[in-house]
Amino acid sequence: MSTLQTEQHGFREHTDGNWDTRVPVQTRSGRPRSTNVADFPEVTGREVNWKFTPVTELSTLLSGELQGGEQPVSVSDAAGVTVRYVPMDSEVVGRAGIPEDRAAANAWGQAQVAQHILLTSTERQTVIVDRSAFTQQATAAHTVIEAAAQSDSLVIIENSGAAHLNETVEIVVGEGANLRVVSVQQWNEDAIHVASHNATVGRDANFQHIVVSLGGKIVRVNPSIHLDGQGANGESYGAYFADAGQHLEHQVYMDHNAPNSRSRVAYKGALQGDGARAVWIGDVLIRRVASGTDSYEENRNLTLTEGTRADSIPNLEIETGDIAGAGHASTTGRFDEEHIFYLQSRGISEDEARKLVVRGFLLDVIQRIGNEQIEDRLQQAIDAELEQSVLA
Question: What's the pTM?
Answer without folding.
Answer: 0.91
